[in-house]
TrEMBL record:
It comes from the Bacteria. This is Macrocin-O-methyltransferase (TylF).
Amino acid sequence: MLNDGFPDAVLDVLRLVAPHLRTGAVVITDNVGVMRGGYADYVSWVRDPANGFVSVRVPYKGGTEVSIRVA
């Protein structure tokens, strides 16, 4: 899933879609590095193991969060 475009909506979108993602699904969210404030809640949520993802920021231009559905 590419979750890109509106920082204020990315967390809401993922929360809606996550229950429908199978284990191993990949979620890519761009610009989390350059817009840290706008993505802070999203990054905290996706990195919390209780939400079923393993996530890391990769050093692409702008900072990209790559998340894998594990539960």
